[in-house]
Design brief:
Low-confidence stretches: none
Number of strands: 0
CATH superfamily: Hydantoin permease
CATH class: Mainly Alpha
Number of domains: 1
Order of helices and strands: HHHHHHHHHHHHHHHH
Shape: globular
Helix content: over 70%
Largest sheet: none
Strand content: under 5%
Mean pLDDT: 86
CATH topology: Hydantoin permease
CATH architecture: Orthogonal Bundle
Number of helices: 16
Distance between the termini: 17 Å
Amino acid sequence: MTDGKSFRTAPRGLAILSVLGPGLIWCSDMIGSGEVILTTRNGAILGVSLIWVILASLFLKYWIGVSGAHYTVCTGEGMMDMFDRMPGPRHWLVWIILAMQLVAASIGSGALASASGAFVSSVLPVSPRLAGWIVCAAAFWLVWSGGFQLLKLVMGFFVALIVLGVFYVAATVLPSVSELIQAFTFRIPEVPAWAIEKAGVHPNPWREILPLLGWVAGGFGTQVWYTYWVIGEGYGMTAGRGYGKPADVEQLRSVDDSLARRIKGWCRAVYVDGALAMGTTAFVTISFLIAGAGILGANQLAPEGPEVAFTLSRIFSTRWGSVGATLFLISGAAALVSTLTVQLAGWPRLLADAVRICVPAFGRRFTWRTQ
């Protein structure tokens, strides 16, 4: 239980950097297959004029994630317990989430493991199938045997790899200043004739834009998991509580003005933590878009799936050298592996919370593993 004596005061100024960390894990999850594959392909087809679409999606999801994190900081409970407080039949919303996320976890993790294996095998001498199993085993070991701080450290390393690799490639084919300015004019570009004829792309650009809006910065689970990373770091009222516990309502009723002001300090920390995560995600996502436009689009190519990155790497290697091509593949592999790792840490927490709420006997018999 968090009380006035054990409650940490949020640092101010540059000292706030010492408590940042949930955003690193959030960021490593947001930069995934949507950025590596979908954004790069969109850049090839529609060019850099889609930068405003990326920023709009990130802006909306920033406020969703930060709002959920603020709720957790102020109450000490995650978003699943918040959903359970919705008026209506008992646990109705959590039951819906449980059913949908169970399917999403099964399909999403399998697809991501397959894509991760393909990318890892492109930089290491192993088959895609074996690489996929190795990645899954390593990710499983990390999230189940390590603690929150270890997860944060490893995800920070992956994010650094992603930024380095994709920036190197994007900087090589950076568009002109005028093109970048036009990318902020909310213009919907037309699908070029070559994409329709050669790649079979539908002439309606929204067929490409809408999936991008949904995939950029992750989906529902990504925003819910951010509250778990906040709990892991011990922000605000989450200090010392651990996972899988609803808020102590009586304790919240006794919060005085002094404690409320200290909680508000942790809300400011969430703003900074989330902003750094979204800023990094925006930089990386736009870099993938630029790489797709400058390399694939310039050669009138619009491959699908992992071939998006592999084709881009081959073209880059023949024109600018193998270093950048290898870095791009490493950044793509790091993005997919880090996303898979975070998903294997996030979905068990979400599903365990949902089952604890919907089947109370489960929560009484089994407790959260301490992490």
